[in-house]
Amino acid sequence: MTAPVAKRVAHRFTHHGITVEDPYAWLKDPNYPDVSDPEVIRHLQAENLHFDEYMDGLTDSVEALFEEMKARQPAADESVPYLKNGWWYQWRFAKDAQYRSWYRASAAQPNTWEVLLDEVSLAEGLQFFRLGSISVSPDGTKLAYSADTNGSERFTTRVLKLATRESLAPPIANTIDGVVWDAESTSFLYTLVSEEWRPYQVRHHRLDTAEETVIYEEADTSFFVSTDLAQSEQFVFISSGGHTHNEVYFLPRANLTAPLNLISQRRENHEYHVDHGDGRFVIRSNREHFNFDLYQAPENAPSEDNWHKFVAGDARHYFTDHLILQDRVILLERIDGLDQIRIIQANGEQHRIEFPEDTYDAGLGRNPNFATDELQVTYTSMVTPNTVFDYHLATRTLATRKVQKIPSGYDATNYCSERLNLTVRDKTTVPLSLVYHKDTPLNGSAPLYLYGYGAYGLSIPPSFSSVRLSLLNRGFIFAIAHIRGGDDLGYQWYLDGKLEARTNTFNDFVDCAHQLIARNYTSSGRIAIAGGSAGGELMGAAMNQAPELWGAIAAHVPFVDVLNTMLDADLPLTPLEWPEWGNPITDANTFTLIQSYSPYDQLGACDYPPLLVTAGLNDPRVTYWEPAKFVAKMRYLRTNEAPLLLKTNMGAGHGGKSGRFDRLKETAEEYAFFLDLLSSQIASTS
């Protein structure tokens, strides 16, 4: 089984007096996003063939894992129904279906369901299908939906008359997010993406005349545009922003061509989010505290001069989201890393929803109505399957609506969950969540799967996974490192892992592994690590820093060619990403810092651990050539012959395959790779 060897073509560039050699630059198709260069395609196909040949030796393991994972998924499934504008709505998976079907029933005839949209038929014959949005007009007679059929995240929006299924508008290509209907169901707003895949323009479409008007266009290439409907449904918000600051406009839903009203003009390091209800705007802003405060302002004068603070954040209380219901504000916050849901009543009285475990993940479910006595809440922990509750606001009680079914059986008492606080090299305390089977020995002999992300202020919650049981039942410990760069411990936790502090993220992850070894959960060389996208960058950086620690690595769509990407202002995401990583084009210190940790640039001659890398040919977020170049360079430089695999989904993008069972097969491949390298226990213990 001979691995493909990518040719080396002399290519160099110089910035800030520093010359960089990049002999694999040719793997970027010059016609991107049209990837059609025959030599590039041949190389990716050769890598896929090498992957297939390797995985042929693990076929039995992959199939066994896949069947286990599939047996834990309900063959048929359905969501909790919800009522909106006189109709009940619900999605369902038919038995063994890869995709959902969407249904509705009149409130007057709640047992008579009709098919609203059938993803199964829409996906038929396609290599990839992803429903982007689905939106019924307020009068219940029209449906707008969008779909991506190649993984490029360029959606096509279609609008139908529900009674006849006739098209009410030509298909609208290159959209993103859903439509926002006007109050009379006669027109809608949608967001268009540019050739560079940046959401930049909001358009208004009239159904009666097919007239199109540009409502808003963003010229700043570092800003993305989005639309949203206020919870009160009286106003539509148009937000434009990047990673560090934004601005929000509003207009009445009754008149989508009315002049835009600006709430607060953009300025550096000011981020704010707006909702509306009860005649006021409620604004979550970090203008005074990095963990955000909650303000309210009158709807006829919402400028910053009229903001009145009514809930203050602090170093412990980090406000992550908010929702306005009639006579109530729902505030999502994180206290010492633990999610909380606070209910604030009109009279100022407030309380938090009480949950039964010490560590968990809680959030809001679907809450489509402004006037309601119930709040839908989602809940899970590392040992508790995903649960949907209705929280009765008057009685302050939780009613279970749905618990994730595991048809093959699950007993939570067979598993143990812990939350550790680990001290890393700069004396910072980093939390870590872990779960393991009760029979797993904690004497250093167990293999351990360590997951991390650590970017963009995204937390990784301690949630349940049914597929993870396949590892736990084979003696693996599963751990999540809540490293800096995410916002697990507040906004400052995010700031402490970005820009010039970026290496904290990598150091935290490596030091968590050292601490797990010191505490006898596992041992060096017995740790499998995995992460995707920016988490894939983490995998590359951790591999370069401490290759001896890892028994195997899975890097999914990894952002590993950081320096080259941040130097390419023509790529769609690069200007938007500079506030996260820095701009190496204009700043020499940023150039040298990124070069010092960029996984592709830091590859050298050493023994590397086994590595499984994935990519998507149509991925607009992490372009396919980043993982391809990384694998090619590593194969050339490394001093050992450990497995090194690259799998490129030739008809998909950032998220891999789209069907619910196809995704399971890809997880089964990763787990089989890890088990083959780290565990002699192939059969499940339960």
Helix/strand-derived category reads: alpha+beta
CA gyration radius, whole angstroms: 25 Å
Shape: globular
The low-confidence runs, each spanning 5 or more residues with pLDDT under 50, are: none
The total of helices stands at 12
CATH superfamily membership of the largest domain: Alpha/Beta hydrolase fold, catalytic domain
Note the beta-strand portion.
25-35%
In whole angstroms, how far apart are the ends? 35 Å
Largest sheet: 8 strands, mixed
Q: What is the strand arrangement across the widest sheet?
A: 31-32-34-33-35-36-37-38
| Total domain units | 3
Report the top-level CATH class of the largest domain. Alpha Beta
And the CATH topology of the largest domain? Rossmann fold
Helical proportion? 10-25%
Got a strand count? 38
User: What is the mean pLDDT?
Assistant: 94
What CATH architecture label of the largest domain applies? 3-Layer(aba) Sandwich
Task: Write the SSE topology.
Blueprint: E1 12-15, E2 18-21, H1 38-56, H2 59-71, E3 77-78, E4 82-84, E5 87-93, E6 101-106, E7 113-118, H3 119-123, E8 130-136, E9 142-148, E10 155-161, E11 172-181, E12 187-193, E13 199-206, E14 212-217, E15 224-229, E16 235-241, E17 246-252, E18 261-264, E19 272-277, E20 280-285, E21 293-298, E22 308-311, E23 317-325, E24 328-335, E25 338-345, E26 350-352, E27 361-364, E28 374-380, E29 387-392, E30 397-403, E31 415-423, E32 429-437, E33 448-451, H4 469-472, E34 477-481, H5 491-495, H6 503-518, E35 527-532, H7 534-545, E36 550-556, H8 562-567, H9 574-581, H10 588-597, E37 611-616, H11 625-637, E38 644-649, H12 660-678
Parallel strand pairs: 33-34, 33-35, 35-36, 36-37, 37-38
Antiparallel strand pairs: 1-2, 3-5, 4-5, 5-6, 6-7, 8-9, 9-10, 10-11, 11-12, 12-13, 13-14, 15-16, 16-17, 17-18, 19-20, 20-21, 21-22, 23-24, 24-25, 25-26, 27-28, 28-29, 29-30, 31-32, 32-34
Helix pairs in contact: 2-12, 6-7
